[in-house]
Amino acid sequence: MIRSQKFWAAVCAVIFAGSLIWCIVLLTMKPGDTVTITQDGKTLYTIDLSKEPDRTIEITYEGRKNIIEIKGGRVHILEADCPDKVCVNTGWLTAGIPIVCLPNKLVIEYADNDTGLDAVAG
Amino acid sequence: MDLKKLTRLAMLTAFALIIFTIELQLPALAPIPGMKLGLANIVTVYAVYSFNAGETASLVIIRVLLGSLIAGNLMAMAYSLGGAMLCLLGMLFLRKVIDKKHIWVCSVLGAVLHNVGQTIVAIVLMQTKTVIFYLPFLLVSGCVAGALTGMAAQLVVNRLNK
Asked: Which residues of chain B carry a pLDDT beneath 50?
């Protein structure tokens, strides 16, 4: 079977279709209210967005900083002093996709939805 | 290793780095860390089907190390290296079972392994499994980019290795 070219092409097709479905599941997830801000494996803040007033949080890591803004029940990274600005360009936090800053090991995510993975794995 | 082969490998490495540097200038396709076309992998796939395991590995490792230095992003080196190593091991196995008419299939699976590798490194380094949420997006883009670079590599292999 592993000598068959068709088998490997089929494996590609299955992986592609599977990840496409996984993407759609993540993108259509409904967010909860609780957001956690985690750095280097430690939870720094747990925020209830429905009660939180608008404010900014500055987080520093080894001299580099990220500024997180909470506004109208949504959260995003306003500023970062890294060169690539991936976290800033991610935009507002959605249910399926966390905001990640790889150089500063910072993760912002909704705490109460791990259903995305279970739906695919189960 | 004879001189001619050494020269070819050095030129291919330089060529891959040029492609890599040009690709750095392109704007990011999506705000997903690690998502890119990976055009330099045309050279990697070509090398997998043209050189032995050790020669291909040295080309890829030198390309990733120098590439990270050129990009000035040493943090990214760990992710690239993790992805590249898993991708390389997978493709070196796959070249035994996938013939030269289906190189694009090998390239797609290599891209998938690359995405899995970089995600594993990110999970280990960041000590959070959160980044796994990026994996499906990386996989979709990886399949498309892998198929395209694979087809390009297939053309090169079939013309240069007659």
From this structure: none
Instruction: Look at the domain B3-155 and name its fold.
Output: Arp2/3 complex 21 kDa subunit ARPC3 (1.10.1760)
Among B37, B14, B43, CA closest to B25: B37
Work out the mean pLDDT of chain B and round it to a whole number: 90
ipTM of the complex: 0.86
Query: What's the pLDDT score for residue A120?
Result: 47
If you average pLDDT over residues A31-55, what whole number do you get?
Answer: 85
User: Could you say which residues from 48 to 67 on chain B have a Cβ atom under 8 Å away from some Cβ of chain A?
Assistant: none
**Cβ–Cβ of A19/B140 closer than 8 Å?**
yes
Which residues in A lie closer than 8 A to residue B99 (C-beta atoms)? 5
Q: CA of A82: how far to CAs of A49, A104, B32, B39, B162, in Å? A: 26, 9, 15, 25, 47
| pLDDT band at residue A113 under the 50/70/90 scheme | low
Q: What is the 3-state secondary structure (H, E, C) of A11-79?
A: HHHHHHHHHHHHHHHHHCCCCCCEEEEEECCEEEEEEECCCCCCEEEEEEECCEEEEEEEECCEEEEEE
A34-112: which CATH number, 3.30.160.100, 2.60.320.10, 1.10.720.60, 3.40.190.80?
2.60.320.10
- List, for residues B129-138, the tens digit of each pLDDT value: 778 888 999 9
CB-based contact, A5 to chain B, within 8 Å: yes
Q: Domain-by-domain residue ranges, chain A?
A: 34-112
